[in-house]
Each structure stands twice: as structure tokens, then as C-alpha cells.
Design a protein that fits this description.
Distance between the termini: 109 Å
Oligomer: single chain
Helix content: over 70%
Strand content: under 5%
Number of strands: 0
Length: 109
């Protein structure tokens, strides 16, 4: 059989009951805040913003890496342009712009 004797005084039992009621009230208040629609919506918004920030940050890093790699193709270690690579690309761009301009003029004329 279990020992059912309680050596606490009535005042101690009342103090324990008051303490447990306070803890229970605080717990119920916390649950009420957690399940409140504004809290749920706020938590969802915070998660979306955090995910978006993470995605944007990763995209920025990736774009920065690509830009750095492309820049490295057209500049040397000191940052000076590599003319053997810049000139052909510039000529190709001028050629494409020229062809587009001619094509536009022929359509109008």
C-alpha cells in the first residue's frame, strides 16, 4: 500500500494550492497567446520572411560568384583588362547591335 500520510500543515497545503493555481494560470495564458490568430499569423509571416531572406541571400551569393568568375575571364590578376578577350566580345556586341539596327530600319522602310 502507498503511504498516504501528509505531514504538511493546512497553511502549507493552501500555499501549495495557491502556487499551483498561479502556475496553471500562467500556463493557460501562454497557451492562449500561442493559439491566438494574430500570433499564428505573425509566426507564419516571420517564417515566410526568414525563408525569403535566406533565399535572397543565397541568390546574392550565387550572383556575386558568377560576376566574379566572369570578371576574372576579362581581367588579369592586377585588374587590368585582358584585351585578347575584351576586344572580340566588344566587336561581337557592336556587330549584333549593328544587325539589329539594320533590321529595324529595313522593316520601317
Amino acid at each position: 500500500m502507498a503511504d498516504t500520510s501528509d505531514t504538511r500543515t493546512p497553511a502549507q497545503i493552501e500555499a501549495d494550492i495557491r502556487h499551483r493555481r498561479q502556475v496553471l494560470a500562467a500556463t493557460l495564458d501562454e497557451i492562449g497567446v500561442r493559439v491566438h490568430p494574430k500570433t499564428i499569423v505573425g509566426d507564419a509571416k516571420a517564417k515566410v520572411v526568414a525563408n525569403l531572406d535566406h533565399t535572397v541571400g543565397r541568390a546574392y551569393v550565387q550572383v556575386n560568384r558568377v560576376v566574379t568568375e566572369v570578371k576574372a575571364q576579362f581581367t588579369d590578376e592586377e585588374g587590368a583588362p585582358r584585351l585578347e578577350r575584351v576586344v572580340p566580345v566588344a566587336l561581337a556586341v557592336v556587330g549584333v547591335v549593328g544587325l539589329l539596327t539594320l533590321s529595324t530600319r529595313r522593316r520601317r522602310g
